[in-house]
From TrEMBL:
Gene3D superfamilies: Tetracycline Repressor, domain 2. Residues 59-119 form the HTH tetR-type domain. Residues 82-101 bind DNA. The keyword DNA-binding applies. PROSITE patterns: HTH_TETR_2. Keywords: DNA-binding, Repressor, Transcription, Transcription regulation. The keyword Transcription applies. Signal peptide: none annotated. Pfam families: TetR_C_6, TetR_N. It comes from Deinococcus koreensis. One of its GO terms (molecular function) is DNA-binding transcription factor activity. This is HTH tetR-type domain-containing protein.
Length: 249
């Protein structure tokens, strides 16, 4: 009865309720206004938080659903993670899911875009420091071992699998991969120019080789952590930038 009277007195939707001893706290959406309810039923304001807009609320919900899906897809695979599991992990309802995504495929596409955007942002930061480049500390950060974040590599493997099986996901993956390859090509070309070198192949081709090498070595590293030295990728990259004459077919 007390819950009904409190909820009915506030036009906003009740987000959650926690009960501890004789004090109940009700958080209302979207004002984040708290009230304390004494054992006698009297209500008084306790504290207030910054009001967030409906758009900010939806963005937060979307982000939390994406991160929950990222973990589940990495551990269980795309086919092994249901919408109910994703919403349960994120702490939302199916209604919240369908307010942001039409299907699991739509969610996977959004996750692909999110992860590639993070990679592009990292490359952009490298571009602001050409002295670091791919052969210095910036390169080491970009080519970090998968030991530091297995989920990141596992989810990328799931991207590849889905891209082979689902045409819509394939189209999104190809587009994002193309943007990443172009960004890496620009970095490789800038690094070669800074070192006064001539690339043995086109920068786009060099970028494709580097991506394939990174993905392959990371996969082997996950399965056999001691299979090769951590610096192998950097060594092979420097080999690509050796001042040798261009290769002939």
């Amino acid at each position: 009865m007390l819950l009904e009277s409190v909820a009915g007195s506030c036009p906003e939707a009740l987000k959650y309720v926690t009960v501890s001893g004789y004090i109940s706290q009700f958080e209302y959406w979207p004002t984040f206004r708290y009230v304390s309810v004494s054992h006698s039923g009297a209500m008084s304001p306790v504290t207030s938080r910054k009001r967030i807009s409906r758009e900010e609320s939806r963005a937060q919900t979307r982000q939390e659903l994406l991160m929950a899906a990222r973990e589940l897809f990495a551990r269980q695979g795309f086919e092994g993670a249901s919408i109910d599991q994703i919403t349960d992990a994120a702490g939302y309802t199916r209604g919240a899911f369908y307010s942001n995504f039409d299907t699991r495929e739509s969610l996977m596409i959004a996750l692909i875009e999110h992860c590639f955007a993070e990679d592009l942002a990292q490359l952009s930061r490298l571009g602001e420091r050409p002295e670091a480049g791919f052969s210095g500390e910036g390169f080491q950060a970009f080519s970090a071992s998968p030991d530091t974040d297995q989920t990141a590599h596992l989810i990328k493997m799931e991207f590849w699998m889905c891209a082979m099986r689902y045409p819509r996901i394939r189209a999104a993956y190809v587009q994002q991969q193309g943007q990443l390859r172009a960004a890496i090509a620009r970095q490789v070309e800038a690094q070669a120019q800074a070192l006064g070198l001539t690339l043995p192949v086109a920068a786009e081709d060099a970028a494709a080789v580097l991506i394939a090498l990174k993905n392959g070595l990371d996969t082997q590293k996950l399965i056999q952590p001691q299979a090769f030295a951590d610096g192998l990728y950097a060594t092979m990259f420097r080999q690509l930038l050796r001042p040798d004459p261009p290769l002939t077919p």
